[in-house]
Amino acid sequence: YVGLQSWLMDKQATIMPPSAREAKRKLSTPSLSTSLLQPGSWRGKRSRTNSRSGSPSDLGTYSQDSASASSSNHTQPTTHSISLSSDGGPRPLTPEASANHLGGATSTTPSVARGPSVAPVRPILNPDGGEASWKALEMALSALRISTKICPPLHSAVDNLKSCLHIFQRYKEAAKSRKDYKELATGLTAMVELLVKHMSNASSKEIMEIIASIAKNITQELESLEGSQFHSGRRPSRMLGVLRDEEDLVRRYRKIEQLFRQLQAEASMSMWDVTKRHHVNTQLENLGPAKLAIYNSKISMDIGRRSCTENTRTQILSDSMAWAENPNGAKIYWTNGMAGTGKTTIAFSLCERLDAAGKLAASFFCTRTSRECSEAKHIVPTIAYQLARRSAPFRDALCGILDKDPDIGILNTTSQFNSLLAKPLLESKELMERNMVVVIDALDECGDPHTVKIVLDILFRYAADLPVKFFVTSRPEPSIRTSMMAGIDEQSRSRSILYLHEIEKSLVQADIEIYLKDELKHMLPAHEADIEELAEQAGNLFIYAATSVRYICPSGKSVNSKQRLKTILEVNNKSKKSMSDIDVLYSAILSAAVDDDELEPEEQDSIKAVLWTTICACEPVLIDTLAILCGLEELELAVSALQPLRSVLHVSDHNNFVTTLHASFPDFMLSQERSKQFFCDKVSHNGLLAKRCLDIMRAQLRFNICHLKSSFILDDEVPNLKEQIGTHISQELSYACRFWVDHLIQGATSEPLVEMIHGFLLQRLLYWMEVLNLNKCMVIAAVASTKLHMWLRNSQASSNIVGLAHDAQTFVGNYAANQVSGSTPHIYLSALPLSAPTSHIRLTYQPKFTGLVRVTGTLMDQVGQAPLNIWSSYNRIRSASFSADRKYIITGDDSGRISVRHPHSGEPLVTFKSH
Predict the structure, then answer these.
(1) Where are the alpha helices (DSSP H) in 577-652?
(2) What global pTM score does this model have?
(3) Angle, alpha carbons 535-541-542 (nearest 5°)
(4) Where along the chain is composition biased (Polar residues) (predicted)?
């Protein structure tokens, strides 16, 4: 309340019914209902002074002394206060700003990023036992009921609340001895009346969805109230002897009041103007979230992600929901299990339940099938983005932080977590819904284990104080398990752990049997015994059952399902003594696909090529791209080769992307001991793919590939550039330009391959930079050129080629780090003529172009390599060195810490404290 201007008091006075205003004039010392105070405001009492006539002065007048005196009697939940900005919306103040405001200073700085928050309203006081307050509440709810027809869940919640009012009104004796009941009605009445006003403007689909979710929570709380002892019809006088019952009734009402406060906050967002909405949306988009990482994104359909079959995994899901709803439960719940135990399906089902209950704060489902969903650096920005979309208080706090520092999205993971999650969560803690859950699935599928470790370490450091919980699933990989188990004895309350592979086998098999009978119901009852045997063979691996189903009944293909079921059972019985169950299944499927007697040798080779290329591909690829990478002359050959592999490879029906179905399959294929004749030789095949990528670039790269007409405008300002890129840069060329070096360094060295690289550096380097720059991938170019130089040097290539690669690394790095990279033509017009005169790149390429500026002079002789990145450290760095393999930078600072840092971002990956 501290610092509110008379404008707010006059505005709020208009919502008071006449009876309340008359009652207020009769009182000389009103009591302020603490239930109306905004969390985060000072809980000071209102100060009243008398005029010369002896009548009370204007209500709403506050003094610094009264606020200070009251502060000694009330707990301050946070260190923030509330003030009005010039746009009419309240905003939190720092303690210093609050002090200035108390002294008369008024802030007039507008904040376009922050929407209207829930303004505290002044209470309607009644001299009676509270009957008039409850009557006013009933009338306000009737008005709200009319305005909520556009939102059925809220309409229903209002009806339920009206039907429960008699429970509180029955406590007349309590109302005489306690002011809480009267104040509860007064506070909620004011909020409901404001909500009526806001609901008329709440037209945004996004806001209405959030309001509907909160309304469901109100309904659940009311249903709990109706089912409690307060609805049992017992005489109030007998219950008053049990203080615990009375306090529980007030606690339940406070919970409902809090939910209505959230409703008011969300509904008030609809009053934002277009400028504010655009500004907030821009701030959130600039975080760079991985939108495909949400549990039910379109990629979930592409890769076959789904929820548990009905009546399976019931105990696990029940326990998980109980943990989520328990306010005293551990902050982190780690579900770990071996490959194929059903972690992702369980996480998906939990997300559905949490989402339906309005408790899902955010979700990040890692998967190797998507580049953005496999990078741990996207986890924090994505969670912040989703939370901001779901919670107005969090969004308000986050946008306030982004106003001060718009570039947080490019900081390292530690700084991002602190600024994008910890600070705004703590600031909005009192206004946010309780027990919301963040779900992070398949953490082991993130490509950078160092960043994963950083995320986990930060999580353990902050989780205990945050108002959200974290549900994490992963394999028990050594790096993840070490972080999860660190300090478990001292911090046992901070996390709970479930080992899926240690659940009693009979319980898992019962669920698998239900799943198989549901998927293969068309084969019942004739083959019920065979299906039960298949469930027994699956053990505790759901992936075994799921893969079997795809083999027995492949989508879009007519097969003899009975014979396929028989084949799996027979093969398993013959081989289970020497091989694991999943290996037996994969071997049986591949044998049926490749060793078919009706196939020609060329067809068998095509199937193997498609299989191995999918395993080694750096990302999911289109069937067209897959065919070219495999060296197949016709698209139909790739389509035919994929048909018998659909049990182990996923071919999206929506976009024709091909990828592996489960992480356990590449593990199997890359082990010669396990896959035997189907073994994918990673070194050999990556070398082949590097050659194919170089062939694609040789055939398709050319000068000014997208026909840009001017160097005077930035790429972002070129009309229809995205369409031009789609027209002139093929999918296979885009893949080759981004990943040829990755395939190269994983393959074997050969003289022909080195010669192909030499030709690329002499003839196509700048054209390659064009493609990557147009696709906003110059960071990939800078990293790739560094890797190429190191690979050639370690491969003992000739000094001429190594020197050329070194100059290419310098040239690409300088361009990538310069703002001139915003315009692709300036690769030729600026970067080339301004490079060092002795650079092999300048000497090789400049004579090929006419009309370029000629830059000479002594200063040009001093041109060196620009830094790829500049990063700062909180403590002064005293020493720095590269690791032996040149993959990391090790630094020592004034605090005595030794840090292992990422060579391009400077982010600390591991930190050691000296002794």
Answers:
(1) 581-594, 601-616, 623-629, 635-642
(2) 0.62
(3) 75
(4) 50-65, 73-86
